[in-house]
Amino acid sequence: MKDIFDVINNRRSTRSYKEEQIKDDEIEKILDAGFMAPTARAAKPWHFTVIQNKDLLKYINESSLKIMSESGDEFLESIAKSGQNILHNAPTVIVVSAQKDAPNMQADSSAAIENMLLAAEGLDIGSCWLGLIQAFFKDEENIKKLEIPEDYIPLYGVSLGYKTKENPQITREKNNFNWIK
């Protein structure tokens, strides 16, 4: 088992995956890590949708790019114009949704996502937190395709797959803190 500090220090956003599908037991471990995240008021307001259907993943990407191209947002339009795959051609994507009335849905879902990202790295599986997938959620018909329970709202995605290359080594500045004793 990998040391947790090594996992934290080595985790990077992966944007290139092998076509090979990750194993079900690995996905279950990653989901379990998400379920173990802390939540405000012990609400556990999340719902995870695991998508491995290639046609649906292709549709999510294409629909997202179309919506982004018509968004009026210069940044999103430039990404759409580039034609990049916003899911990074991952064989698995997990959509993270939260109960619509949850008191702290963003923080709770973010904690679950971070746990899943770290669990994936611990299993030597690449991952990336997907924010651009939010374009897909702007269309109610798209949300219906994901079979998310009615009282939940989709927030983010996580792409998962076996890495095509090792994570690059980086160092981050550690000067954004103060210490009061």
List the topology elements:
Blueprint: H1 4-10, H2 24-35, E1 46-51, H3 54-69, H4 74-82, E2 92-99, H5 105-122, E3 125-130, H6 140-145, E4 152-162
Helix pairs in contact: 1-5, 2-5, 3-4
Written overview of the protein:
With 181 residues, the chain is of the alpha+beta class. The chain has a single domain (4-162), classed as NADH Oxidase, CATH 3.40.109.10. 38% of the residues lie in helices and 17% in strands. It is globular and about 50 Å long. The N and C termini lie far apart (35 Å).
Overview features:
181 residues; 4-stranded antiparallel beta sheet; globular; NADH Oxidase; alpha+beta
Entry summary:
This protein has 181 residues and is of the alpha+beta class. Helix content is 38%, strand content 17%.
> Which topology does CATH recognise?
NADH Oxidase
> Which radius of gyration do the C-alpha atoms yield?
17 Å
- CATH class (first level) name: Alpha Beta
- Alpha-carbon distance between the two ends: 35 Å
Question: Which strand order does the major sheet show?
Answer: 1-2-4-3
Number of strand segments: 4
Shape: globular
CATH architecture: 3-Layer(aba) Sandwich
Integer tally of domains: 1
Number of helices: 6
